[in-house]
Fold this sequence. Notes:
The protein is mainly α and 176 residues long.
Amino acid sequence: xxxxxxxxxxxxxxxxxxxxxxxxxxxxxxxxxxxxxxxxxxxxxxxxxxxxxxxxxxxxxxxxxxxxxxxxxxxxxxxxxxxxxxxxxxxxxxxxxxxxxxxxxxxxxxxxxxxxxxxxxxxxxxxxxxxxxxxxxxxxxxxxxxxxxxxxxxxxxxxxxxxxxxxxxxxxxxxx
Length: 176
């Protein structure tokens, strides 16, 4: 009986150690843990849902782009940032060719009293920036293949750089 007891005890101990080792490896596929503020995450999710509605149902690409840019500026670690980048890039691309129900000149950059609109080329540049960031930073995203398709008409993805946000027309103008 003592041999059976020892055998069972060894089996139980081995099972416990094996289970702990498997659980320890479980998070390796998920990347580093990011602490997210629940309120900011909730607000970002709301903005994404609104942007999605503007983008898919209303074809209101100016409103969609503005909502996405609000998320990108306020919560760059948002759990669905890949979708935000995709919608921002696709909205910019649509505005470059004047698609949708809103005219591209409704997208206005305010610099104090001065208001500036973007040219079709500036919208294409903006689209390429957002879509390249998606492709480079989120290779497992379900939006990656669609982004790559859109990037074909824009000269392909830009090479991966630091974690700098996509350059805006405003920052390009101030650099010249």
